[in-house]
Every structure is written in C-alpha cells, then in structure tokens.
Amino acid sequence: MRSPLPFRFRNRLETSRMVLYSALAGSLVGVVGALLLSGLDLAQDFLMGLAGYHPPSLPSRGGVLMAFEGNVRWWALLILPVMVGISVWLYRPQHIDPLAENIEHYHSGESRPIQWGMQLRRILAGFLSVGAGVPLGREGMLLSVAQATAHLTSRFGSLSKSEARTILMASSAAVLGVVFHAPLACAVIIAEILYRRNEFEFEILMPAVLSSVAAYAVYGSLMGFSPLLDIPPVETPSYWSMPLYLLLGAVIAGMANVYLQAIRALRRNLRSLKINLLFVPVAGAVGVALCSVFFDGTLGDGLGWLQLGMLGMLDDLSVYQHFMVRFMITLMVSGTFMIGGYFTPQLVIGGFAGASLGAAINAVFPADPVNVLVFGLVGAAAFLSSTTNIPLGATLLVATWSGEQILIPLVLSTFTAYAVGGVYSLYVEQKNVRAESGAHISNIVSEALSQPGPQDLMDLLRNQPVTVLQGDTEQISEIDVPTHWYDKTKDLIDLPESILIFAIAREGKILIPNNKTPFIEGDKVILIGEPPEVAAFKEMLAQQKETTSQEAPETPSENGVVA
Q1: CA neighbours within 13 Å on the CB side: how many for 555?
Q2: Partners of 525 in the β-ladder
Q3: Cα distances (Å, whole numbers) of residue 335 to 162, 338, 346, 368
Q4: Is the pLDDT of residue 452 over 70?
Q5: What would the pLDDT profile of 358-373 be if each residue is shown by its tens digit?
Q6: Does residue 31 carry a pLDDT above 90?
Q7: Sequential DSSP letters for 365-379
Q8: Kind and range of the H or E element at 466?
Q9: Which strands, in side-by-side order, build the sheet including 524-529?
Q10: Residues contacting residue 503 through CB under 8 Å, at least 6 positions apart
C-alpha cells in the first residue's frame, strides 16, 4: 500500500495546481466585473438622476468631476428608501457584507453548495441600493460574483475542499483588485484579512495574486487601465514631520474604535428590539435621504468627493463637513444592515479625517504647513488598517495610487493605528490564530502526529500532549459541555485567553464553531491549550458544577412533590 504524501508536499502540489484555476477564476471575474460595473454606472445615472442628483464621478470610471448642481426634485428622494426596501425584500441578508461571508466560509473548513437564486437576488439588490445612492461601495455586489466564480471553477476542476476555499479567497482578491485598480495590494489584503493579529495566510497569497492580476488585466483591456484616484505628484515629507504621522495614526485609531463600538452597539440594540428586518434599513435610508437634502456629499460612495479634496478643489470647511457627514451616515448605514461594500466607506472616512487633521495643524501652525493631500492619503490607509486589521494591505493599496514617495508616512501611521487599535474589526469572522480556523486545525494536528488526513480527527480527541503551533506543547482535550453554556456562543463564554475552543463533537460529526454556533446539550467541546492550563480549567468547571448542584433549590412539582 502506498504511503500517503507528507502534508507539506501535498500543500505544494495543491499550490501548483492552483495556478491555472486561479487565473481562470480571475479572468471570469474580470469579464463579469466589467459588465456589472458598467451596468451599475447606468443604474446610478438613472436612479440618482431622477432626483436631479449628479455627484462627481471618478475619471477612472469614465466620469467627470462635476459638482452637485441643478434643481433637486425633493419628492424623488423617496427613491432611496423604496429601492432599499426592495433590495432587502429581495435578499434578507445573514451577512450584509459578502466578504464577511467569504471569510467565515474559509474558516469553517466545510464545502457549502451555492444557492444560485440567492446570489442573483443579492446582485440585483446591490444594483438597486448602491445604484440609488446608498453610501456604500461597489465591491459588495461583486463579491457575490466571486462566490459564483469560485463555485464554477471548483466544479470544472474537480477541486478538493481546501482548493475550493483557496479559489474562493483568490476570487475575492480579484474582485477587490478590479474595484480598486490595485491587484497586488488587494491580494495581500485577502491574505491578511483572515486573521486579527500577527497572522498571514501565505497559502492563498500566490493564488490571490494570480487571480487578481488576471482579473485586472481582463477588466483593464475592456475598460482601460488607470489608478482609481488621480493623485497629483507629491514629495516625501520632511523628517521633522514624521512624528506627526505617528500622531495621525494614534488619532485615527481612536476614531476607528469609536466607529466600531458605535456600529456594534447600534446593531446589537436594533437586534434586541426585534424590529422587522425590512423596517430597519428602510428607516436608515429615510435618514440618509433627509441628510442629502441639507448636504450635497451624502449620496454615493464618496470617492468622487474625496478626489475633489485630493485635487485641492474643496476648502477646509467643506473637508470638515464631508468628514463629519460621512462618519455619521456610514454609521447609520452600517448599523441598519444595508447591503453594499464596506471597504470604500473606510477609505473615504479616513481620507477626509486625515485631511481635516492636516488642515487643523496648518491653522494652528501656519508658518510651516504640512501637506494636507499626504495627510488625507495616509489617513485613508490608517483608518482602513484600524477597522479591518490589515496594515500591510492598506499601506500597499494607498501606495499603489500615490507612489512610493509617502511610503514612510504610510507605514508609520498604518502600523501605529493597527498597534493602538483593539483586536476587533468590522469582521467578527476573523480568527486570532491559525489553530482556530477549520481550514487548518486538522492539518496542524495530523502533521504533528504524523497521521494522514482529516478523517482521523476523531482519533485525536484524547487527553495527550502533542507538539503543534511552532513547537509549543499543547494539549487536545475533550469535555462535556457545561450546562451554563447551553444556547450560548463561544464569544459569550468566559474562557481563559490561553485556551481555545476549536471544535465541537456533535452527533458523530466535527463542527468548527463560529460566533453564531450555540452550544447544546450533548455536545463534546474540544479544547487546545497548555496541559497545566487545561487541567486548571477542567478543575474550575468541576467546582462550578458542584457549587451549582449544591445551591440548586428544591422546587415542588405541580402535584406538590418536591423535585
């Protein structure tokens, strides 16, 4: 009988096989992306044009930088709530951001069938909501295309589960590369965004690069090659100003923390009210429409207005106003579960925040002014870094548009924002370490014990020390789910930081839990941690169980007998 291939060799074989299929998936994304984005331009011209609203459009999208002018038909602003209502009726989202769904799918370690009807409804919903002027990005709609493309490629190539997950993330990189005109930077973003801190998915980096470059090559051949933003030439800032960029990163991290906490609180409170899912986004759309009556820069993704600011065509007061309005309406849109892309708003908010801080510094110290354009670019990267935990990807993205002259300020600000900010981000689906990901846990343990394949995972659930995670001695242990964990998810469990819950054995199957998977009676919870810490945790659970049983009151049953 031929012995199974070692894990590392299998991994190299899979990576080499990904070359063809990554390029194929990217080419499909490029063709479909060009068609859908062209259609979205027409939808925005028609739907926002009904209200007499023509926001500035990027030259890279074939538009012109014209300011908002003309007589607004106020009654037509009802178009936005109506379109949002129809879009939510078409697609009642479990994930309002498809990228969050792709991250969760990758970490689940499972192969999920695609629902073609749902994907078509989601694309149509994106056309209606973003086309009507919802202040979100275009990438949300196209990420549904990434899911469909990955499914077709996987079926065509008869790919394994791990290969299919890799193609899914590579297709996601292709979508971002097409939308932001930065294929290499977006490949790094996808490899980085899967984890919160100090982790990087090297296995998908090369497929993501191939897919993203292929997609942008096809898209550019059809639509033209140009940077997303037209940035005037800038000089490298002086060395004396470098501490200001450290300060900028810290200030942006504080803003990002307020932003994330506000979104989390708004979503949590709205869910607790148990309001009809259709009503919440429609109410948010009404608020956005009312705001657009008083401020021109409300509707659309805001990149056109950011471009005007980068070219110096907005005064300082307008920059401040754009920052405040964009910050508030994005909170409103994000908190009320509207459908769209959530990368673009972070860049717009950060860009105006950085430019506002630069303008404020110049007002206080007019003798030696800083470059507001550079502050805006660096602020965009820092805010994206802090809200999504992707400092390297955010740095490369903005450097692609602006050039390497501001690379040092970019690195200083983005990594400061990343370090000062918390571990939380817009994507709760991110994992802390690879051992938490269902895409890796069976491979990690199998390689450590020199055993083949995930099919032996049940045999590994024994109280025995093993060497995993870069040589640290960890212990895989199985416990019965405590009663006070019933109906709770793992993010609500008071668990020591040194112990991870990485699987649940339920009815003979292994589940990789996420923050939406409740524990139920009969579960076997699989832990990993240092042996002394696992033993101490088990002892603590035993003491809690004993205390609970002693304190449990005697309750009479209906017939008066004490139970």
Answers
A1: 4
A2: 479, 504
A3: 33, 8, 14, 41
A4: no
A5: 999 988 888 778 889 9
A6: yes
A7: -TTS---HHHHHHHH
A8: strand 464-468
A9: 464-468, 472-480, 524-529, 500-506, 509-511
A10: 438, 441, 457, 510, 511, 512, 513, 526
Q: How confident is the model at residue 441 (pLDDT cuts 50, 70, 90)?
A: low
Instruction: Catalogue the E-assigned strands of 278-422.
Output: none
- Identity of residue 369: P
What mean pLDDT, rounded, does the chain reach?
80
What is the predicted pLDDT for the residue at 16? 64
Token output for 549: 């049983």
Closest to 73 (Cα-Cα) out of 88, 45, 52, 56: 52
Statement: residue 556 has pLDDT above 50: no
Amino acid sitting at position 218: V
Angle, helices 316-335 vs 343-364, to 10°: value is 150
Contacts for 353 with CB less than 8 Å, ≥ 6 apart: 252, 255, 323, 327, 379, 383
Distance CA 225, CA 217 (A): 8
The mean per-residue pLDDT over the stretch 285-297 comes to: 84
For β-strands 464-468 and 524-529, DSSP reports them as: unpaired
pTM to 2 decimal places: 0.77
